[in-house]
Amino acid sequence: MSSTACIPAASNDCREFDVIVIGAGFSGMYALHTLRAQGLKVRVYDEGHNVGGTWNWNRYPGARVDFPVAPYYCYTFSDELMNEFDWPERQPDQATVLRYLNFVADRMDLRRDIELGTRINSASWHETTQRWRVETSRGTQLEAQFVVCASGALSSANMPKIPGIETFAGECYHTGRWPQDKDVDFAGKRVAVLGTGSSGVQSIPIIARQCKHLTVLQRTPQYTVPAGNRPVDPAFIAEARATWPKVKRRMRVTPFGSPFIASTTRAKDHTPEQRREVYERFWQVGGFNIVIDTYCDLFTDEFANETLSEFIREKIRGIVKDPEIAKKLLPDYLVGTKRQILDEGYYDTYNRDNVTLVDLRADPIVEFHAGGVRTRSGDHPIDVLVLATGFDAITGTLQRLNPRGRGGVTLNECWKGRFSSYLGLTIPHFPNLFMIHGPESPGVLFNMPLGAELESDWIRDCILHMRSKGLGAIEPAPGVDVAWGEEVASFARMTLFEKTDSWYTGANIPGKHRQFAVHVGGPQYFAKIAEVAASGYPGFALEQENTVTTSAA
Ligand code: N01
Question: What average pLDDT does the chain have?
Fold first, then answer.
């Protein structure tokens, strides 16, 4: 199968591959498994010192799966994995997911083709050889016909540029780059958490219980709902295993890749009393389901959305005892249009004596200094600063790599005005480069492990097609990205997502252009890419294989 020559390198591995995969998280690990099973010579590189990608880096206190429910946030391709790994909780914590991914790495014998502690520093396309030349942080030069970017939609940390932040002399940790070699000790310390997205909301209740005093620096109040985490009932797991083929089929056809059957009822079809009863029932059970399984129009109709928004605001007013603090916590955007957050006692944390909420809209940060942070109303001394400030999402890691494509053009030049793609899997001017969970794919709004499998399978089949036809390069034909962008936008326009500033739209990163770069069509998206493959890859320019002899640089 492989047409590449294997040239031993000093680090005693082969420098030339069929496929280089960047990232050893859920996506990269499955891509390795499925490509290697076809006899392709594949090598995975990851900057981390463990497999797991996002689940390796995000070790902050409270990090948990938010997708409903264990055992459905997992690989679906192997019944053995499903049957052999026991998920202890409905919303597994970071350590459990990392244990699962290590179990998969061992069970599928993946480690022999994964190089950890190695970042890919550059990648450039060479037209004569129809190969990518890649350089690692260890200075190794590599060549491969294909590059698969499985580098994570949420892995490029957003480090806020705030006056004086570099002068802060205490400990400082970003939630997405949490120390891997030590436990952070909050005991007896004054801590500040900047940011109240999922990472902030998950960590705040735990840090508050451990530290002397916690200051929460909040820019946008958020809707969060109880996670409802609890031990998994063994009977539930037994049932999931017994019905696994059926569940897998269902996950592929539901909008978010969830195993649950979505409601077809509209919010306006119910009376206010009925809605309250429905929301209360889901609130008590906990989990994402209150947003995705109660009413079918929560993401498409502002009236429907407001009914749930107001329900949660009422909950906040009920939970938080001080009305002034409760007022600061009331969100005013459309619920669910920022990534929905699950929590364990978040709002109740503001009833604690050792917690101060700073509303940065009314009381903005003036500057950080060696001993803390000064806001307009006064000074907040701190020993530990936790940056829960999120990520340059979806495109950030690819832009940091900034590969050079055809004619030496860089990705950042191509993406200056918009994040263009074809099928969310390929980029114009970047032949033989594939993305998993890239812009304009369902990525972050679908069951991510399942989406990674489906996208990787498409990439695998595309590579096999090329090999069988003697093709050397594939890339989007001119203009096809524009039509694809319109298709993605037409799905988005049916929803409320674009109306809110969020990392989905790029609005969280100063200077990033606004583009809701997620295909919200889930199952329609996967049907579409399957149709493209079945029809012989219309929309792609296909190039015959050059007969130039290749060699490593
Ligand atoms: O990041 P975020 P996150 N000054 O971008 C604030 C996934 N995830 O790491 O809203 C002041 O959501 C920012 O304020 P604002 C999940 O998909 C999953 O929490 O922009 N504040 C916001 O409050 C999630 O959505 C799990 O006004 C600043 C916060 O920082 C995604 O990762 C767990 C600021 C950032 O929130 C990202 O979540 C955790 C500044 N300069 C994460 N810059 C699971 O449960 C930013 N903020 C699986």
Answer: 94
